[in-house]
User: What shape does this take?
Amino acid sequence: MTAAKRPPLPVILLANDLLDGEVVFWTGRGWSDRPAEALIAKDEAAAFELERAAAHALAQNKVVDAYLVDVALDAEGHAVPRHYREKIKTEGPSVRRDLGKQAGQSNLVPTGH
Amino acid sequence: MPLLDRNGAKDNAWVISEDGTADAEQIIVAYAHVKEALAGNGRGRRIGVAISNTVKLAELLPHLAEIELVSITFPAYGDGRGFSIAKQLRNAGFKGTLRASGPLIADQFAYALACGFDEIELPDAHAERQPVEQWLKAVNAITQTYQHGFGVQNILDARRAARANGK
Amino acid sequence: MYRYDEFDARFVRERVAQFRDQVARRLDGSLTEDEFKPLRLKNGVYLQLHAYMLRVAIPYGTLSARQLRQLALIGEKYDRGYGHFTTRTNMQFNWPRLRDVPEILDLLADVEMHCIQTSGNCIRNVTADHFAGVAADEVEDPRPTAELIRQWSSLHPEFDYLPRKFKIAVTGSAHDRAVIKAHDIGLRILRNAKGEIGYEVMVGGGLGRTPMIAKTIRAFLPKHELLAYLEAVLRVYNLEGRRDNKYKARVKILVHEIGAEKFTELVEAEYAGLDGPSIDADPQEVARIAAYFAAPAYEKLAPRSSAYETAKAENRAFATWASVNLFPHKVPGYAAATISLKNIGEAPGDVTSAQMRVLADLAEKYSFDELRITHAQNVVLPHVKQDDLFAVWQALVAADLASANAGLITDIIACPGLDYCSLATARSIPIAQALAQRFANQQRQIDIGELNIKISGCINACGHHHVGHIGILGLEKSGKESYQITLGGDATLNAAIGENLGPGLAAQDVPDAIERIVDVYLKHRKADEPFIDAVRRLGLEPFKIALQETLHAPA
Ligand code: HEM
Ligand code: SF4
Assistant: This one.
């Protein structure tokens, strides 16, 4: 990931878990399947740390497809992706509100980490 | 670079000498120099040629009888042209050694052998990550396949045999 | 139906073990993600937006009750209680974990199924006419050919690392119901002047970014020469196909760039050098496979069933379903019934595990234990006695599977789009749902008649939008979803690529635009003229104007 391609701040880091496929967010200490726990990088230095975390995690064979996503902050200060694609990715299918994170589901097997 | 065949790791008796000038008995020359290497081969050296996977069969045909090894480059493991070139060379009657050279993966070993390759030459880092044991295991993953003319074990012949035995 | 013998069974089991080992080597770092990805794809495992996706092969769309029940079980145990039938007659599960895939593969192998080559740059699941063995206009059942190709192409040592994916479809009829001209190779079974059976071989069709219609490279290939000829075609493609740009790597681009004549020349030259008989399947093998597709034990019935006629007279809803969803069977007293997976307001092609079990029961009880999946994402019970149709329909009603819309405007094909797919630029399912709701009225659908709407969520065209009478392509425009409308596509032997009608529309404007297009047709059509014929006669202009009106309609 190069700085040139970095989306506008603030950003979060998301990925898919290698074994379970679940969308996971970098919390600063590890990966969480809950978007509310995502570490929000508000300046260049913090975004750079996220990029390093992404590179490290890919090398550890824990997650795949890790990248930064630009977000807005909602009233509670939680990150909400600006782009509709990433919004669907963090919520679940818009045509099945009973499935995915929006319905409190997760494929993550806790022992995987 | 490490070399292996269906029995495992193998010593490389061939010396790579692009222009054919190296002082060795078994040399692999670049395709661009194969004509001169063969023409100047007064002292009976064994000559092989390294080709890219874009070389056309027709260009190689005139030299096949004199060449003892063809090393076909795989620029990436997903580039399967080398399999077809190997098959074409075998179809054309080439009896020498066929070498696949490049970052192949263990799961392609059986395919390579079935298409007529004898040996695989791997980049160092690659061979380190995928040790020979993995190749020898992977090559036996599928014991029989469905194609006539690709290796000895095929299901069509096995079915015929089973029919002949009245099964 | 084809049944595995000991060799097929062992082959599939070994493939499962091989995949299990590949996953283990990915986890221990022997395989990098770049190396593993093609391997998992070749076994049907994608990474989608929310989860992995597993694509199960349903060769030529034929399934038994036992197999469908196993899919129902997998849907419940490893997914979220449903599956999705695709335009290539496969089933996709949207929520499996990679760690569970080997177990799922074992369950599939238990019922003679697999995920081999349902993705990746290799020869994909072979498709065929879903009315194979049923249609009266059939020269020969295409399924034995498709099965022969399935076996031959499975883990083919030479053709597993092609420049790009390679799709083969077979039809045995004059009417093409398998969209063969949109495939890398389309095979049409026919008879020559001497009455011998063979194939017309078409190469270079495909949709995606650059849609193309396949060209005939052999007008008649004797039947027994098939495999050697395919080997020649694939070898030429493997060697000559472009590898510098994945969007130009399909065989259609090669055929287009060097011309069909030059391509034919290369194939014929390669073919001439092959020892055909050593490659082709021997006649006993061909006969062995064909025997599995022998006609079921039909009863001798009167061409018209009085029970059926009475039920139609007494029940209007049944009569409507029968008039829309039945296809004539070549055997008197039977019919093929299309079960629509296009309920108004639901995702096209989705089916719950409970519904799968109902379908399995019906197949067992009423259709010689056989089901077909169609490229239109519906299910067919191929051999139902007319006497039984009413009972079948009642069971379908109870399972919410009795929509009477096969081939009509609400029988919409849609890819998963951005609700599931990581490549998507826009959603497709909500558009299909909104359109179905707009045209929900049964009588109006019947008045409009045959009209195929096909929707893709990106340029890859999984929803076949290019060959929809009306095609809808979802794109991104300035950070918003935008939908482009094409008109005049055709998926039959008259295959045609639809033409763009104008600038993209916002999602909420799509139903209005389609309604205006349909209104133009209704206003100008002659007597029984179908939509596609009217579009051909009228040209695009009147429809373009209708679209402009949508764009400029007051909000
Ligand atoms: C959700 C994951 C999917 C992914 C990532 C995916 C990916 C792709 C890609 C990249 C292409 C274009 C290939 C090319 O032209 O070289 C393609 C084409 C196609 N896909 Fe999918 N697809 C997915 C799901 C589906 C589904 C659900 C269906 C059926 C409903 C489908 C059926 C097709 C068909 C029929 C084509 C036709 C284009 C052709 O053969 O030229 N795919 N897909
Ligand atoms: S057309 Fe695009 S969005 Fe739809 S399934 Fe295919 S790749 Fe995904």
